[in-house]
Design goal:
The chain has 3 helices and 9 strands, in the order H-E-E-E-E-E-H-E-H-E-E-E. It has 227 residues and is α+β, with helices and mostly antiparallel strands. The strands form 2 sheets. It has a 5-stranded antiparallel beta sheet with strand order 5-4-6-7-8, with no helix packed on it. Helix 2 packs parallel to helix 3. The protein is globular, with a radius of gyration of 33 Å. Residues 24-33 have low confidence and may be disordered. Keywords: Disulfide bond, Lectin, Secreted, Signal. Its main location: secreted.
Length: 227
């Protein structure tokens, strides 16, 4: 009887050890698979991060050199979507900010620090050009001036207003017409014509929208004003 009892005990112990061994092997395999999946996922994420193109300020296509301000802007789309002006990764004017309107939208930036000085829009369809002229005359030397049209930015413009904008470096302002799309970046006290300007004429044969041309966009790097 004692021998039979001992034999049963041996069998139970053997079964227990065999079960423990099988479970441990399965658990180890599963752990290895999980760890392998984790390491593979980490390697894949690292590869994706390494191939993802870098993002530059305002979403421009390349980084600006030192002592330059990055900017990107777009005119309005018909009379539906307002213009957008971004400088140094700060959106100064947009429909989301609810500070744009029909006519010419203007943002003023300090040419030395990049600080936003003012944002305004002037209705050139149903408004008066006089406040716009006074605003243009009040701009201080060294100020960066960014402008974008929305809906119609030309009907109320007169020769005086066009001349003041031309003095900021614009070449297209003389030809800006009814419902043209136009974006411009210049400065008060600039000695040459600005390279930052885009203009599309309102033409029923080529318009993208009914009664309006396509949106114009522009990006670049504005040299910081030096003492």
């Amino acid at each position: 009887m004692r021998i039979a009892g001992a034999a049963k005990l041996v069998v139970v112990v053997a079964i227990f050890l065999l079960t423990f061994y099988v479970i441990s092997q399965v658990f180890e395999i599963k752990m290895d698979a999980n760890l392998g999946h984790i390491f593979a996922r980490s390697a894949l994420d690292a590869a994706v991060r390494s191939t993802k193109p870098p993002r530059y300020k305002c979403g421009i296509s390349k980084a600006c050199p030192e002592k330059h301000f990055a900017f990107k802007m777009a005119s309005g789309a018909a009379n539906v979507v307002g213009p957008k002006i971004c400088v140094e990764d700060n959106v100064l004017m947009s429909g989301v900010k609810n500070n744009v309107g029909r006519g010419i939208n203007v943002a003023l930036v300090n040419g030395k620090t990049g600080e936003t000085l003012d944002t305004k829009f002037f209705d050139m369809w149903g408004g008066d050009v006089a406040p716009f002229i006074e605003f243009l005359k009040s701009i201080q030397d060294g100020t960066i001036v960014l402008m974008g049209t929305y809906d119609d930015g030309a009907t109320k413009l007169n020769d005086e207003a066009r001349k003041l904008i031309a003095e900021l470096g614009s070449t297209s302002i003389a030809n800006l017409g009814f419902r043209d799309n136009w974006v411009f970046c210049g400065g008060k006290g600039i000695k040459t014509k600005s390279p930052f300007e885009q203009h599309i004429k309102n033409n029923k044969d080529t318009n993208k929208y009914e009664g309006w041309p396509e949106v114009v966009e522009m990006e670049g790097c504005i040299p910081q004003k030096q003492d």
